[in-house]
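Posting here for the record, re: iron/sulfur cluster.
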Amino acid sequence: MAANYKRNVQALPDVVSAEGAIHEPKEVGAGPTGVRVAMQHALDEMGLVRSLKVLNQVNQKDGFDCPGCAWPDPEDRSALGEYCENGAKAVATEATQARVTPEFFRVWSVEALSKKDEYWLGKRGRLTHPMVLRSGSSHYEPIAWDDAFRLIGDELQALDTPDEAVFYASGRTSNEAAFLYQLLARRFGTNNLPDCSNMCHESSGYGLKQVIGVGKGTVTLADFEKAEVIFVVGQNPGTNHPRMLGTLQKAKRAGATIVHVNPLPETGLRRFKHPQEVRGWLGTGTRLADLFLQVRINGDVALFKGIMKALLERDDADDVLANAFIEEKTTGFEAFSEDLRQTPWSSILDASGISKAEIEATAELVAKHERLIICWAMGLTQHVNGVANVQTMVNLLLMRGALGKPGAGVCPVRGHSNVQGDRTVGINPRPSAVFLDRLGEAFGFAPPRRHGLDTVEAIQAMHAGEAKVFISMGGNFLSATPDTAYTAEALQRCRLTVQISTKLNRSHAVTGQQALILPCLGRTESDEQASGLQFVSVENSMGIVHNSRGSLSPASEHLRSEPAIVAGMARATLGDASGIHWDEMVAGYDHIREKIEAVIPGFDNYNQRVREPDGFYLPNPVRDDQQFNTKTGRAHFTVHAIPKHDLPEGAFLMMTVRSHDQYNTTIYGLDDRYRGIKGKRRVVMLHPTDMTEAGLRKGEEVDLVSVYDGVERIAPRFTVVPFSLPRRSAATYFPEANVLVPVNHVAKGSNTPASKSVVIWLRRRPA
Ligand code: SF4
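Prediction output follows.
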């Protein structure tokens, strides 16, 4: 093949026609059907014996942590199995028997692979060998590990400045691997450490840190059974955090009232059948949500301002606010309450789409109870006003003094098993000076002080040719990020892209001029190092750090652990001059944990405490002492305007969501069982009246179009599906609809892509 061969790689996969079907949404989540579907996935990928072995270990005290979401494990683990349907799918996908070998890459060129979608690529199985795509070549070929590390070292050393390199991390990365990874980047000289939380809960961390002094949730599992009212806002736990339904059921049985706030009536929160209860098989299940507020897309500030305004008006009559708490622990109440009084009900009702009666009923509920928990996910964070959404939730809790006490607090539910842990151990483009001081002290070097690039900034820098080497620890950057065509161009402008992965995905097909695939161990697999078998650790949504040890034989003898891969890259890039004992730390991960303990507060006696069956809680001043480590030492009330979405003629406000057969960009199957959609992923859910007004039929194919800054973006061939959602709203799945989300359409402050409120049009296709 000519050296200057130009690869004709597609940024978007070919659109495969899918017959599929559209049924009525399900009324009940989990139950026997969930078990059947989970077992089918397990048997298809792993076979019976392997399934029994692996599923008996997931989330158990001597087992491995589920590579799915970050919902915590109860102290009393179920011997029947401590996992949900989607946890079983995540485990089955990682522990699959299918393999992607060098022979596979000999047959499939990157051009051919770039035509394939995530579902097809993900089903090829586990990567077995390090592979290289040389400049001008059409196919990956095998490469020795040392040669791969040398290529990385040479390319990094060839850069004009360390800031031309980007070290991206996905939330599956363990604490030990993440800490070494950030150390490599900083010893090399850059803070370019973007991660997947930039695209999900960055608005939560950023917003909470400002108003309560900690960027994490402040509740424990036990708090749910003490709570009187639980709000679940902009979150679909039935699909994205399924074991949370069991926790909500327990809370419900303990007397809690559950308020579901979402544009979509998510099945899991309607009724839940616990698959480990007889009545979960024979009965009709537990009704979870007592109140469903079908808010307009991005209508949450309006809705919660309405609830707070009603509460304030109620307080004028009888004392319902936590005045002593407000007096003693908060600041900004005057401006906040004045803004509420000045906010007309008309704008609240119009922007929220919720009736005054429903709002007042919710306010009444809040007025009667003080143990309130507010849970949320991307439905709040992925908007231009994502930070304002998060801080508005805090305002309500402050009015009732519902922070830092049993049964009360904030609960941003993390979607990736260790995304919170990665941030805690240093995966952060904007590290604190204290962290850098302690890191420099522990390793005897001067870390870079210039803040680095987050995910959106990294895409823009690569597109501008300012970043030339992109390394990805796990994840699927191309499909997880917005503006797919633009991001594809950005990656292809790099001199080198490196993917440290377990399975194939589209980021392996859309690459830099040269590319490397470095296959790593998964969570389910045993990790043997010089000092013996190792375990890693992760931090869940509630700040519990616990161990995870796999026991399966690795999918290939050529795999390496994430820490070992980082050490290999570090040796080749930094040589012995770094003065850092990478091999010693990889030989026994206790050495890594000793360093984490030395650098990061809260990890005292790390190696001893992480061996405890339930791990340990990291300090949380709000949860532990109702202490607000903000600039003022008080919690802050904040004032936020109601966002305006004046839709142009014929336009819709689109939000991207996951189907029930998906985990981030990993597509387990083509069904979205809870929403009644079968065998289809390119769907656009619309209100039936909007369909009628637009003359659209159920099942008709349309193109979706967004226009931002004069740039038209098209996502072709989406099937119209009638669904219950507010007027002029549209729901689609990512990654298919990410091509419509402009890279610079982001949340103020947190820079999180605003994938939940994108203006689109539907363009009819020629008959
Ligand atoms: S709830 Fe989340 S962590 Fe738990 S088994 Fe399911 S996917 Fe895994």
